[in-house]
Amino acid sequence: MKKEQIPGEDARRRRVKRLKKGIVLSVLVWMLLSAGLGVVLFYRVNALSRQLADTQDNLHQLLEAMSRTGQDTVSQPVRTKNHLEASIAGAEGLEGLADSLTAEREVPQAAHKVYLTFDDGPSKYTEDILDILDEYDVKATFFVLGKEDGHSVEMLREIARRGHTIGMHSYSHKYADIYQSVEDFSADFYRIYSYILENTGIQSTCYRFPGGSSNTVSDLDMRIFADFLEEREVVFYDWNISSGDAGSTLLDVDTLVENATADISKHGTSIILMHDAASRPTTVEALPEIIENILAMEDTVILPITEDTTPIQHIRRSEGGN
Ligand code: ZN
């Protein structure tokens, strides 16, 4: 018989019991919450990795579509800018490069705008040209070819890294192949476009026709190729000043400087044709003097080609039938 309970003992026991219950309940609730949170986080992480995978897939699909030859690319405009930008953001290591190039450039106003352009690179002289441009703190435009060797790719990236404009000058530079048909031109176009995009993250928007738009190699009317570019919002640039460095004889420095600079004061926009090519050493030798002469001219600036540049085009596009 345990009649004699200590007063308050019962109440104490109940308190302890309640306390225990409370602790067990809190632990249970805490465990449930943790489990719930775990599930939520698991799904979030899953969703994010799916998004990442999608982005990478998109980039690959896009690049494949672009390098595919044939009719579907002909009718497939490069109007996937947002898509591409999103994809590029996901492409490792290229964001900085792409960003630095899409950054707004201030366009200096001057009576004479001069654009130094180098065709046919990268070459063994690319680095020398880049160093000279750096020395004078001027930006230029390189219309490059599709050269896949390690040095060329490294130089292509270096051109971008140093803030110059990269334009397309065809992948193969084989006039007879490129100008055979719009299909051939398209195939080559997407190869050089992808080559630049894959290696620098840049969507090039300017083109220089091999031989210029007024070349006489093409049996077809060059306007069909000009229309092809226009449909893709790519602008082609010829030149109104030639350094003359592409001829069969190697010109000396004085002649190159004279050719490149003599007529600048006559033009509001001067696009100077030069070459970044292994067979053109005197162009590199003449470059410092060419730049110094231009910088000494009144109300004259040297600029890289951008969307603001007035194009110089030897042929008219077919609109209006002329
Ligand atoms: Zn060329």
How many DSSP-defined strands?
8
In the CATH hierarchy, what is the architecture at level 2?
A: Alpha-Beta Barrel
Order of helices and strands: HHHHEHEHEHHEHEEHEHE
User: CATH topology, which one?
Assistant: TIM Barrel
Which structural class best describes the helix and strand composition? alpha/beta
Structural summary, described in words:
This protein is α/β, with parallel strands linked by helices and 322 residues long. The chain has one domain: Alpha-Beta Barrel (TIM Barrel), CATH 3.20.20.370. The chain is built from 11 helices and 8 strands. It has helices at 9-67, 71-74, 81-90, 95-102, 126-135, 150-161, 175-178, 182-200, 222-231, 253-261, 281-295; strands at 112-119, 141-144, 165-168, 206-207, 235-236, 241-242, 269-275, 300-302. The strands form 2 sheets. Strands 1, 2, 3, 6, 7 and 8 form a 6-stranded parallel sheet that branches. A two-stranded parallel ribbon has the order 4-5. Strand 4, helix 9 (222-231) and strand 5 form a beta-alpha-beta unit. Helix 1 (9-67) packs across helix 3 (81-90) and helix 10 packs across helix 11 (281-295). It is elongated and about 120 Å long. The relative contact order is 0.14. Zinc ion is lined by residues 119-120, 169, 173, 210.
